[in-house]
Amino acid sequence: FSKGMLVYASGFPSDLLLNDEAAAKSLSISNNTNSNTRDNSLFGRVSYNRDEKYIVDLTARRDGSSRFGPGKQWGNFGAAGLGWVFTRESFLEKPLSFISFGKLRASYGTVGNSPRGDYQYLSLWNTTTYAYDTTVDLYPTGLSNPNFAWEVTHKLEVGMDLEFMAGRIRLAADYYRNRSPNQLVAYTLPTVTGFNTIEANLPATVLNYGWEFSLQTVNIQERNFRWTTSLTFSAPRNKLASFPGLDSSAYASKYLIGQPIYATRLYHYEGVNTQTGTYQFQTKNGASSYPAYNTDFYSIYDPRPKYWGGLENEVSYKGFTLSFLFTYAKQKGLNLDPPVTPGQIYNLPTSYLNRWRKTGDVSNHQEISYPGYSNILPYFDLAQSDYYVKDASYIRLKNLSFSYQLPGKALAKAHIVGSRVYVQCQNLFTISKFPGLDPETQSSTVMPPLRVVTAGIQLTL
Question: What is the phi-psi region of residue 376: left when phi exceeds 0, alpha when psi lies from -120 to 50, beta otherwise?
Answer without folding.
Answer: alpha
